[in-house]
């Protein structure tokens, strides 16, 4: 977005009406796309709704999010669980951290346990009936006074299962606890890449999370700002201002000005969101203790990461994983694919906007061919985060209609390990060529559509406008 | 006077019809020029070519003595299309400034012009209002101002009075005269024939993509006159019949008549004077542009414009 300001004639500022007839003005050949973009940008940024959605919305979301975490963390703190092990499957001991206290009880009936729960002496119990055997595939159940949160549920399950498994191994192999521990140590597999770098276990999970979020953000960007462009075009058409402006500027300039202006709105909005997120992420854990760990884990949405992190003792693993991810590169690529994908799709949205009239319903059927590739993109993306080097993922990240979404999901897995440089370069090149061609086609449709009143156009007609 | 705009053999064909089919005419500088035609005659397409929105398929446009160059000549043209409107949510002052800047005016010049015109049309208090707060007439006024505030050499007004009450219509009409007097050329496109008769110097009538009439208003009327006269007499003459004319209508002492081929108005007068009847008034009835318009359009209706 560069506005060229050239003073093309000497300054004659005398007011001239009624004296000389024409060309009385100093003509400033300010780029007209720039003038249009500035209006599109300012008219949106100055609205109150922009302020609400950009600043208040994330704060509200973060606030709610914080509250939910706060309460889930708070209720988590102490679980006293009675184990009525009538079949002696646990060997009298379950390793519990301070959050979970497992107490073995004997000669208690289910009824008396329930009473204790009612008196708040216990939070829950596990009843293991006599003759219970894991080998037979029997199941046991955990009974609690109140509903247990998802995180706690997982923790309890893990503790109990680990203990059960250990006992089973001990009894079936007839070995001591220390022998078993040494055996299990050797079980670990470390993942490393050819270049010798040892991969952090947490990294795969974090890459998954970051990739998923990046891809999804691009998907949202394409829709939100694409639709905004389309509505803007429709507004100009229904207000009948299009022809007034077209008599001063070329349709292409009007379209590009609108796309540039709204793109700038999007960019500003995202930058504000990124800054806000970073500030809140630093700020919130200070306010709500104990949240740091949980948010870190949950933000990157991967249960694998959480488990590895827990296993390795602390969330060091996550932190290491995070530090191994090249956020500079991701952010740069994000902005590139944001702009590239936006330019590619927004011109198509503009073309659709120019082809319909007052009725927003009309837009639906014309939008389908545009939204399809975006949906395909998100579908390929969900596959790509699980297997970032599959043929489908590579294709999706090169094909310009899906590459902004799919490539952003692959990049966090590592450049050049997962995404070779040539793929990144080719994908970017194809995206640039892609948006140049969609813009060219759209401009031709737009040029005709913007001046057409009456019935809405069909795809067949749009095709004719584009190629005639 | 020199021509400001010359159209030569302009053609613009769409897939299904010939929107503009070989039209040529000249517009003299300082004229108020009427471009007439029924709906779908090709007026809008023609105007869009003159304003550089469309390129003609063939033919040439000469503007101000040189080949028309839309990119650079646009600042010398002000176009108020028939399908017109403004951004509803935008403040009026900002809107005028925006449109003027799009024409190529600098911010300072634009501000100066807007202030001048707003003052002239008593719109100063509107600056911070939004278009959606204006009545239809007010927004038409604003639209007119945004069309002319860059002092274009050529002003094109498509149905400029639609939606205006008589007071505001008169105001705009006076402005149009003023602009023409100060040297602007005005192309005025409408179906409202009484306005054309009142305002225009020169008219062109197009129908089905072709020019079917071209001349000054007086010339056109002369060309289509039907030798009708109205005469008011001091009394009723004993002998009304005469080979020189046919009486079309009689209301008391007033007669409407058509003079027959080979006779002259003097023959009529002599007939009555010979009988000693006082003649109080004697006028030629020229056809209204409306009648001419309807007649010509009906005549060309049967001609098909479609490709065969």
What can you tell me about this protein's structure?
- The complex is a heterodimer of chains A (468) and B (308).
- Chain A is mainly alpha-helical and 468 residues long.
- Chain A folds into two domains: 108 residues, D-Maltodextrin-Binding Protein, domain 2; 267 residues, no CATH class.
- Chain A is 64% helix and 5% strand.
- Chain A is built from 17 helices and six strands.
- In chain A, the strands form two sheets. A four-stranded mixed sheet of chain A has the order 2-1-3-4, with helices on one face. Chain A has a two-stranded antiparallel sheet with strand order 5-6.
- In chain A, α6 crosses α8 and α6 runs antiparallel to α10.
- The radius of gyration of chain A is 31 Å and the shape is elongated.
- Chain A starts with 31 loop residues before the first helix and ends with a helix.
- Chain B is of the alpha/beta class and 308 residues long.
- Chain B has two domains: 220 residues, Rossmann fold; 60 residues, 2-Layer Sandwich (Alpha-Beta Plaits).
- Chain B is built from ten helices and 14 strands.
- In chain B, the strands form three sheets. Chain B has a six-stranded mixed sheet with strand order 6-7-8-3-9-10, with helices on both faces. A four-stranded antiparallel sheet of chain B has the order 2-1-4-5, with helices on one face. A four-stranded antiparallel sheet of chain B has the order 12-13-11-14, covered by helices on one side.
- In chain B, α3 crosses α4.
- The longest helix of chain B is centred in the middle third of the chain and has 16 residues.
- The relative contact order of chain B is 0.14.
- The C terminus of chain B is likely disordered.
- Classes of the chains: A mainly alpha (468), B alpha/beta (308).
- At the A-B interface, α1 and α7 of A face β6, α3 and α4 of B.
């Amino acid at each position: 977005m560069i506005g060229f300001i050239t003073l093309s004639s000497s300054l004659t500022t005398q007011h001239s009406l009624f004296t000389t007839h024409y060309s009385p003005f100093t003509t400033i050949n300010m780029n007209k796309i720039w003038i249009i973009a500035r209006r599109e940008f300012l008219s949106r940024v100055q609205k109150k709704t922009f302020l609400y959605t950009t600043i208040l919305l994330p704060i509200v979301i973060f606030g709610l999010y914080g509250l939910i975490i706060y309460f889930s963390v708070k209720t988590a703190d102490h679980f006293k669980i009675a184990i009525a092990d009538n079949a002696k499957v646990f060997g009298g001991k379950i390793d519990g951290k301070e959050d979970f206290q497992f107490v073995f009880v004997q000669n208690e009936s289910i009824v008396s346990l329930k009473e204790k729960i009612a008196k708040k002496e216990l939070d829950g119990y596990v009843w293991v009936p006599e003759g219970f055997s894991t080998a037979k595939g029997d199941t046991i159940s955990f009974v609690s006074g109140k509903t247990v949160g998802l995180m706690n549920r997982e923790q309890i399950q893990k503790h109990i299962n680990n203990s059960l498994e250990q006992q089973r191994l001990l009894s079936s192999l007839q070995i001591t606890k220390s022998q078993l521990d040494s055996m299990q140590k050797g079980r670990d597999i470390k993942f490393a890449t050819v270049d010798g770098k040892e991969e952090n276990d947490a990294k795969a999970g974090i890459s998954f999370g970051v990739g998923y979020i990046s891809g999804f953000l691009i998907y949202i960007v394409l829709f939100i700002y694409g639709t905004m462009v389309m509505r803007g075009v429709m507004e100009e058409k229904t207000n009948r201002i299009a022809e007034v402006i077209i008599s001063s500027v070329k349709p292409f300039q009007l379209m590009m000005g609108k796309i540039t202006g709204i793109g700038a709105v999007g960019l500003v909005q995202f930058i504000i969101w990124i800054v806000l997120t970073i500030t809140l992420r630093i700020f919130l854990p200070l306010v709500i203790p104990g949240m740091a760990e949980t948010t870190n884990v949950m933000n990157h949405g991967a249960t694998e990461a959480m488990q590895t992190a827990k296993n390795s003792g602390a969330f060091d693993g996550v932190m290491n994983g995070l530090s191994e991810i090249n956020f500079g590169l991701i952010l740069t690529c994000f902005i590139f694919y944001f702009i590239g994908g936006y330019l590619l799709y927004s011109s198509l949205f503009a073309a659709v906007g120019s082809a319909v009239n007052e009725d927003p319903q009309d837009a639906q059927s014309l939008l389908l061919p545009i939204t399809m590739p975006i949906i395909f993109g998100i579908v390929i993306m969900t596959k790509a985060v699980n297997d970032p080097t599959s043929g489908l993922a590579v294709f999706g990240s090169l094909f310009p209609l899906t590459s902004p979404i799919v490539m952003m999901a692959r990049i966090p897995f590592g450049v050049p390990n997962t995404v070779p440089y040539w793929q990144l370069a080719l994908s970017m090149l194809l995206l640039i060529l892609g948006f140049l061609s969609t813009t060219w086609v759209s401009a031709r449709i737009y040029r005709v559509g913007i001046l057409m009143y009456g019935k809405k156009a069909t795809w067949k007609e749009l095709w004719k406008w584009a190629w005639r | 006077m020199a021509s400001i705009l010359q159209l030569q053999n302009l053609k613009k064909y769409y897939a299904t019809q010939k929107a503009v089919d070989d039209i040529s005419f000249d517009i003299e500088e300082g004229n108020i020029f009427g471009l007439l035609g029924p709906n779908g005659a090709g007026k809008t397409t023609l105007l869009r070519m003159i304003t550089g929105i469309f390129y003609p398929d063939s033919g040439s446009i000469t503007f101000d003595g040189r080949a028309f160059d839309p990119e650079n000549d646009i600042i010398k043209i002000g176009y108020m299309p028939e399908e017109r409107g403004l951004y509803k949510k935008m403040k009026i002052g900002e809107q005028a400034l925006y449109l003027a800047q799009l024409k190529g005016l600098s911010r300072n010049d634009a501000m100066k012009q807007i202030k001048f015109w707003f003052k002239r049309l008593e719109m100063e208090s509107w600056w911070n209002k939004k278009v959606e707060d204006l009545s239809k007439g007010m927004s038409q006024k604003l639209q007119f101002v945004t069309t002319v505030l860059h002092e274009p050499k050529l002003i094109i007004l498509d149905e400029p009075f639609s939606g205006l009450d008589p007071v505001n219509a008169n105001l705009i009409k006076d402005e149009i005269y003023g602009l023409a007097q100060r040297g602007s050329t005005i192309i005025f496109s409408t179906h409202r024939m009484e306005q054309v008769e009142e305002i225009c110097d020169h008219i062109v009538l197009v129908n089905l993509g072709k020019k079917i009439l071209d001349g000054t208003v007086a010339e056109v009327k002369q060309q289509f006159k039907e030798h009708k006269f109205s005469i008011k007499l001091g009394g009723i003459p004993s002998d009304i019949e005469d080979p020189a004319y046919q009486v079309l209508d009689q209301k008391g002492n007033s007669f409407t008549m058509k003079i027959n081929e080979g006779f002259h108005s003097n023959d009529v007068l002599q007939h009555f004077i010979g009988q000693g009847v006082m003649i109080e008034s004697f006028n030629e009835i020229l056809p209204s542009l409306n009648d001419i318009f309807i007649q010509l359009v009906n005549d060309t209706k049967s001609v098909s414009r479609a490709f065969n």
